[in-house]
C-alpha cells in the first residue's frame, strides 16, 4: 500500500529552539515596525504567528507530511447555515457533498452532456453549470482513500480505493492497459497500438523522432487512454500533455493523473484546444478514434496550429497499413483506402513531409521553415486571426494558421533558462530579455522563501503541481525537478497571454477561466500555487467558488500556497477555516511592511465514510494530529 508516515513527540531541545526563535523574531518584528498603521499591526501579527506558532504555524504543527487518515473535521453546516454564519461575521462552514459525488466533474457532467449534439463530439466538450447550479459543498474522497505512491512507483501502481473502477481491466485486458491486483491497479505500460509496452513502441518512434538530446521536449497525446505513452516518455526527458474525454472508457484520465502523468479531460471536437500556436514538438494519436480525414481536414489543421515548425505528427493505427489490417479492423478496403488518401491530401495541403510509414505507424513532419515556399499546396483559406492566442471557447475553422517567426529553441534542459523567442522578438508586450531575467530571479527568491516554511518542496512529496496564474513560468522553473511536473495555467482574465513563453521553456500548461471548474477529476493535484488569483478575479466571480474548486482538485493532505494582498488573504484564510484547511500566514520575504503576503494551507484528510474525524477541541483550535 501507499507509504504511511507519522511524527513522534518533540524533544526538549526542539522546544527550546522554538522558544528562542519566537523571542528573536518577536524582537525583530518590533524593530522593523515603522509606525502604527493597520499594515504595521498586521505585519507584526504575522511575524509573531510565523515565529512563535499561532494555532496554524509550523512550530505548532502545520504538517506537510501525509498521514492518510485522521485529523479532519466533520462539517455539519449546510448551505443556508453557511450563509447565516457569513452574515453574522463567523467563518462559513461548508458541508460535505454526497458520497455519490466523489468523482464529480462539474463541466463534464454525464447527464448534462447528453443534452448536447453528438456531431463533432460537442456533447463531450465543456458544458459548465450556471452560477445558481454550482455546488456549495466539499467533494469527499472515497472511503479508504490513501495518498498515491511516489513517482516513479506511481507510474506502475495506483491504490484501488482511489479510483475503484474495474471496467478497463476487462475491456482492455488484451491490450495490457491496466490489471487489477487486489489492493492496487497495476499498469504494465500497454496500449491499443503497443500491447507489448510503451518502451518498445517509443524505441520504434525514436528511430525517426529525435527524443534523445532534448530536441523533442513537449508532446501532445490525443485520445490518450491511461496515458502510458506520457508515463514512459518521462524517463527520456520528454513531457506529454495527454487528454481524453470522460466517456464509456471509465476513469482513463483519472487513472493517468493518479499515476502522476499530466492529463486533462478533453476532446478534439468543435472548439480549439486550449493552447497557443506553436506549442508542441510532437503530436501523437494511437488509435484515438479522431476522424482525421473528415470535416475538410479541420482536425489536422488544429494540430498544425499547435505544432511547432519542424514538429512531428505520429498517427498509429487505422488507416495506416490498411492493406494488411483491414480484416482485423473490420472495415472495407475501399473505406480505409479513401480515408488514408484524404489524410495524405490534407498533409500535403499543410506542407507536411511524410517521413516514414512503418507497420501501422505513419510519421509526418511540419516544415521547419514557415516562410519556405510550398509550391504544391492547393488553394486553402488562411485563418484571419487578430489575436492568435484567443482560443478559449473559439470554434475551430477549416483554415491554415498563418506562419509566424518561431525562432530557434535550444535543446532541453537548456531551453528552460534560455530567453524564449517570444520574449527576444518582443511578442510579449512589456517584456525584454532583461525584465524576463529579473522575473525569473524574483521567483527564485519566492521559492527559496517557500522552502523555508515547507521543506517538502525539495522532496518527492509533490508530483502533480498546479500554478493557477503562471505568468512566464517563473514558479515552475524555480521549482523544477524531474520528480515533479507543473500544470502552468494562464487565466483567460490575465492581461498578457504568456502561455507560448511557457511552452518555449519546455514546460506545459493551458488556458483556463477560473470562474469555471477545471477539466480534471477531484483529488488530482498534490500542490496548488496561485499568485494574485483572487485579485485578478475579484470583479469576475466569487472567491468562495474559486476556493471550492481548489478544494475539489486538491488531494487530501495536499498543500496550497497563495500570494496576494493581505486584505484579500485574510478573507481567504477566514473562508478556508470552514473548508477543513489548516492555514499559516507568512510575510513577504523582503519585508513585513510589504502588503503582499503568503498564505500556506494544508487540506485535512477526510473521506465520505467519515474517516479522518477529529475532536471538537481540535477543530476549534485548528491543531493537527501531530500535536
TrEMBL record:
GO molecular function (one): methyltransferase activity
Localization in the cell: Endomembrane system; Golgi apparatus membrane; Membrane
EC number: 2.1.1.-
Keyword line: Glycoprotein, Golgi apparatus, Membrane, Methyltransferase, Signal-anchor, Transferase, Transmembrane, Transmembrane helix
A Pfam family: Methyltransf_29
Keyword Glycoprotein part of the UniProt annotation: yes
Membrane topology: Single-pass type II membrane protein; Single-pass membrane protein
InterPro entries: Put_SAM_MeTrfase (IPR004159), SAM-dependent_MTases_sf (IPR029063)
Transmembrane portions of the chain: 12-31
Major location (coarse): membrane
SUPFAM superfamilies the UniProt entry points to: S-adenosyl-L-methionine-dependent methyltransferases
GO cellular component, one term: endosome
GO biological process: methylation
Listed PANTHER family: METHYLTRANSFERASE (PTHR10108:SF1089), SAM-DEPENDENT METHYLTRANSFERASE (PTHR10108)
Family: Belongs to the methyltransferase superfamily.
The protein's name in its UniProt record: Methyltransferase
Taxonomic source organism: Panicum miliaceum
Amino acid at each position: 500500500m501507499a507509504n504511511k508516515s507519522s511524527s513522534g513527540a518533540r524533544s526538549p531541545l526542539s522546544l527550546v529552539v522554538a522558544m528562542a526563535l519566537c523571542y528573536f523574531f518577536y524582537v525583530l518584528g518590533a524593530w522593523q515596525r515603522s509606525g502604527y498603521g493597520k499594515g504595521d499591526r498586521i505585519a507584526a501579527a504575522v511575524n509573531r504567528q510565523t515565529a512563535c506558532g499561532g494555532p496554524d504555524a509550523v512550530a505548532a504543527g502545520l504538517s506537510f507530511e501525509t498521514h492518510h487518515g485522521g485529523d479532519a473535521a466533520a462539517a455539519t453546516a449546510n448551505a443556508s447555515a453557511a450563509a447565516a454564519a457569513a452574515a453574522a461575521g463567523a467563518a462559513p462552514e461548508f458541508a460535505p457533498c454526497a458520497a455519490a459525488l466523489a468523482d464529480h466533474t462539474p463541466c463534464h457532467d454525464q447527464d448534462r452532456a447528453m443534452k448536447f449534439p453528438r456531431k463533432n463530439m460537442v456533447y463531450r466538450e465543456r458544458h459548465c453549470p450556471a452560477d445558481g447550479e454550482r455546488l456549495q459543498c466539499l467533494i469527499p474522497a472515497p472511503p479508504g482513500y490513501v495518498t498515491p505512491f511516489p513517482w516513479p512507483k506511481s507510474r506502475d501502481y495506483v491504490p484501488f480505493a482511489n479510483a475503484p473502477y474495474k471496467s478497463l481491466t476487462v475491456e482492455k485486458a488484451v491490450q495490457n492497459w491496466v490489471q487489477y491486483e487486489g489492493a492496487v491497479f497495476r499498469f504494465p505500460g500497454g496500449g491499443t497500438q503497443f500491447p507489448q509496452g510503451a518502451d518498445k513502441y517509443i524505441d520504434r518512434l525514436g528511430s525517426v523522432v529525435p527524443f534523445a538530446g532534448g530536441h523533442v521536449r513537449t508532446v501532445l497525446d490525443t485520445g490518450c487512454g491511461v496515458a502510458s505513452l506520457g508515463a514512459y516518455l518521462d524517463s527520456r526527458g520528454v513531457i506529454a500533455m495527454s487528454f481524453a474525454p470522460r466517456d464509456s472508457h471509465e476513469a482513463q484520465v483519472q487513472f493517468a493523473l493518479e499515476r502522476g502523468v499530466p492529463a486533462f479531460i478533453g476532446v478534439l471536437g468543435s472548439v480549439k484546444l486550449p493552447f497557443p500556436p506553436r506549442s508542441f514538438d510532437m503530436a501523437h494519436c494511437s488509435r484515438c478514434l479522431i476522424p482525421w480525414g473528415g470535416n475538410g481536414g479541420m482536425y489536422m489543421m488544429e494540430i498544425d496550429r499547435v505544432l511547432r515548425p519542424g514538429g512531428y505528427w505520429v498517427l498509429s493505427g487505422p488507416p495506416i497499413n490498411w492493406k494488411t489490417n483491414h480484416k482485423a479492423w473490420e472495415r472495407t478496403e475501399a473505406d480505409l483506402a479513401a480515408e488514408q488518401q484524404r489524410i495524405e491530401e490534407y498533409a500535403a495541403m499543410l506542407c507536411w513531409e511524410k517521413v516514414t510509414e512503418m507497420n501501422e505507424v505513419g510519421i509526418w513532419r511540419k516544415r521547419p521553415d514557415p516562410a519556405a515556399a510550398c509550391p504544391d499546396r492547393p488553394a486553402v483559406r488562411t485563418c484571419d486571426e487578430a489575436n492568435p492566442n484567443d482560443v478559449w471557447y473559439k470554434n475551430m475553422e477549416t483554415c491554415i494558421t498563418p506562419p509566424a517567426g518561431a525562432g530557434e529553441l535550444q535543446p532541453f534542459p537548456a531551453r528552460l533558462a534560455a530567453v524564449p523567442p517570444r520574449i527576444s522578438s518582443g511578442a510579449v508586450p512589456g517584456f525584454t530579455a532583461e525584465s524576463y531575467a529579473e522575473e525569473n530571479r524574483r521567483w527564485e527568491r519566492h521559492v527559496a522563501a517557500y522552502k523555508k516554511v515547507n521543506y517538502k518542496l525539495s522532496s518527492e512529496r509533490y508530483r502533480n503541481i498546479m500554478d493557477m496564474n503562471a505568468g512566464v513560468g517563473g514558479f515552475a522553473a524555480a521549482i523544477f525537478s524531474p520528480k515533479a511536473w507543473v500544470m502552468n495555467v494562464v487565466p483567460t482574465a490575465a492581461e498578457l497571454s504568456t502561455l507560448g513563453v511557457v511552452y518555449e521553456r519546455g514546460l506545459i500548461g493551458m488556458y483556463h477561466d477560473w470562474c469555471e471548474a477545471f477539466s480534471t477529476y477531484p483529488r488530482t493535484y498534490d500542490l496548488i500555487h496561485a499568485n494574485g488569483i483572487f485579485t485578478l478575479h475579484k470583479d469576475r466571480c466569487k472567491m468562495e467558488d474559486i476556493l471550492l474548486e481548489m478544494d475539489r482538485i486538491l488531494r487530501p493532505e495536499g498543500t496550497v500556497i497563495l500570494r496576494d494582498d493581505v486584505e484579500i488573504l485574510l478573507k481567504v484564510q477566514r473562508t478556508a477555516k470552514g473548508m477543513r484547511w489548516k492555514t499559516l500566514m507568512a510575510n513577504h520575504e523582503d519585508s513585513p511592511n510589504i502588503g503582499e503576503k503568503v498564505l500556506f494551507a494544508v487540506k485535512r484528510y477526510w473521506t465520505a465514510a467519515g474517516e479522518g474525524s477529529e475532536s471538537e477541541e481540535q477543530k476549534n483550535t485548528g491543531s493537527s494530529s501531530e500535536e
